[in-house]
Amino acid sequence: MGCVHGKCCSQYPNSSEFDAQEFSHGGGNNHRYVLTERSIEIAHVPSHNFHLEYSVLTQRGYYPDSPDKENQDSFCIRTQIQGNPNLHFFGVFDGHGQFGTQCSNFVRDRLVEILSNDPTLSEDPVKAYNSAFQTTNAELHDSEIDDTMSGTTAITVLVHGDTLFIANVGDSRAVIAVKTGNRVIAEDLSRDQTPFRKDEYERVKFCGARVLTVDQVEGITDPNIQTWGDEETGGSDPPRLWVQDGLYPGTAFSRSVGDSTAEKIGVIADPEVSMVQLTPNHMFFVIASDGVFEFLSSQTVVNMVVRHTDPRDACAAITGESYRLWLEHENRTDDITIIIVHIKDLHNQLGGGATNGTYGVTMNPIPLLSGKGSADTSVSYRSLRSNFSEPQPCLYTTPVERSPACVVPSPTHLKTVSPFGTEDSLSDPIFLQLTMNFYFLSVIKMDRLLKVASH
């Protein structure tokens, strides 16, 4: 959600150096966006004799009022941290504000460097994580970047042997897929840090924040009503944080890195860190910015990954559906970034509560979402304003074979409301251009496959 006012490291190059395709947008404007794709990469974990297969995709948002706005999302994937073949880092950073891109890139680079240089990382990842976030936040404040009204969220996963350490600051999300019988359950690995959460609401109120929706600020609804339901029902006008005597900063999250003005009213950079011990029932995990989860539930995202043998296809399908739903409900889209990591050939002894729906233990400072999305409990959502989300666990079937074509919105989703007021998407220039863009990307992927085959 970000502020009301308003890439990669290791073996990956910066976003400007990606093998990306830039498309012209339809609708009679000069908007251009970049959809970036990477090949499948592999990271081995020799201590437990399994490996990770992962891919990532990032897409710049569509902002009709700011057609040249940069992609403020960034990501970092670094394998073999400190030369340790069993230590791998994955992170997504969602910048916001005027200098959100600079904040996102700064945190992306510095956080992993600080972790890499911390001698206690292997022995105490939780302590190292907390220290790294605090140091990164202080360095951002002291840098040449103006972070008074800008900053970034951060969702990161550290693979430490057969254990995941998840550190979250903000409202991006990590989700893991757990196979239970013939079903695949989405287990949230992080909790969105927003004023919808009672604990976060009370914390920022204690620090002096006014918590109001935009409608309450404008006097449309009663500002004395301090209950907003949950993100599913109140996502279209979420509660935001304001200083007592002004209409700023208006953040819809309660934690971030940067945002020195919001820091004065309780927006902190302290991560919530949790731990999960992997078992053979864990199939893959997903790390994504809130551009994905604005209209898709965690379970829907997991269901979409299950349908594809190749994480590249899953990344493209989820990004395409997220983009389509944004345009259906808004006149813009958010930046979208997603990392999918498959867990392959893990054969350790079952443990960690995998049979009863609890997949983690409390570390610091909150419990993992024990039981969330398990076979006998409900799945949690964000602002699911779409009728196309699938709250039921996915029935496990053999995934489709890899296809060179990216997934485009299905025929059942042809009705949409475009920024031009057209209800029939068949005559909607944005929808048609988006479909053509995915077609062009599929051609590019086919060409790539043919080149590989020729060698």
Automatic annotation (TrEMBL):
Report the InterPro entries cross-referenced here.
PP2C, PP2C_BS, PPM-type-like_dom_sf, PPM-type_phosphatase-like_dom
Instruction: Cite the SUPFAM superfamilies for this sequence.
Output: PP2C-like (SSF81606)
Enzyme class label: hydrolase
What is stated as this protein's family in its record? Belongs to the PP2C family.
Q: Which cofactor is recorded for it?
A: Mn(2+); Mg(2+)
- Keywords assigned by UniProt? Hydrolase, Magnesium, Manganese, Metal-binding, Protein phosphatase
Identify a single GO molecular function assigned to this protein.
protein serine/threonine phosphatase activity
Q: Which residues form the PPM-type phosphatase domain?
A: 53-343
Q: Name one Pfam family in it.
A: PP2C
Q: What is this protein called?
A: protein-serine/threonine phosphatase
Q: Which Gene3D superfamilies does this chain map to?
A: PPM-type phosphatase domain
Which EC numbers characterise this protein's activity in its record? 3.1.3.16
What is the catalytic activity of this protein? O-phospho-L-threonyl-[protein] + H2O = L-threonyl-[protein] + phosphate; O-phospho-L-seryl-[protein] + H2O = L-seryl-[protein] + phosphate
Q: Which residues form the signal peptide?
A: none
